[in-house]
Amino acid sequence: MRTSASFWSSDLNANPHPLEMVSSEEKKEIEEQLRKRIADRAYQLYEQAGSTPGHHEQDWLRAEQEVVQRITQIRESGSWLIVNLHVPNVPAEGFKLLITEENALLEIEEPFVQRPPEHPERFSFYAARWPAHVEPSTASAYVKNGTMTLEVKLKANPPQAKKTSVASPQ
Fold first, then answer.
1. Rounded to two decimals, what is the model's pTM?
2. Nearest of 115, 114, 112, 95 to residue 104 by alpha carbon
3. pLDDT tens readout for residues 118-133
4. Can you say whether the dihedral through the CA atoms of 16, 68, 24, 108 is positive or negative?
5. Which of 38, 6, 23 is nearest to 125 (CA)?
6. Domains of the chain
């Protein structure tokens, strides 16, 4: 079950619709699905290489690169971070979005994933690593003209404790 949050998207007619944050149970399911998809692709790479042992780390890293598209363009505007992602023809119900202080994970659900025929396992997951910690509760997302925009506020620096000198006994 999803819980309500400040995420919203638009349908193909540009009318806004709420996009709900996934629940903690769904978060675990999405993370497990991602891990399984990477593991399955790593095993395919292992088999394609003649089932030669000793390359499991390289296979895993390559599989991860093929399954998860890294979002590298993150703009800063004042105290906000902004990500834009081209996602043509994906309605609100096609998204699952997880936001943590350190990163964002976006899953585009089947049947909305558009994959090139030569890489059928690619890019149903997109990940962004924030350059600084953010406040997940401030995140909002919307889709307009085939572009998903995600905005999240940078975490305010915790107040520094005043440094006081302690006089040493004389």
1. 0.71
2. 95
3. 555 545 889 999 999 9
4. positive
5. 38
6. 3-154 (2.60.40.790)
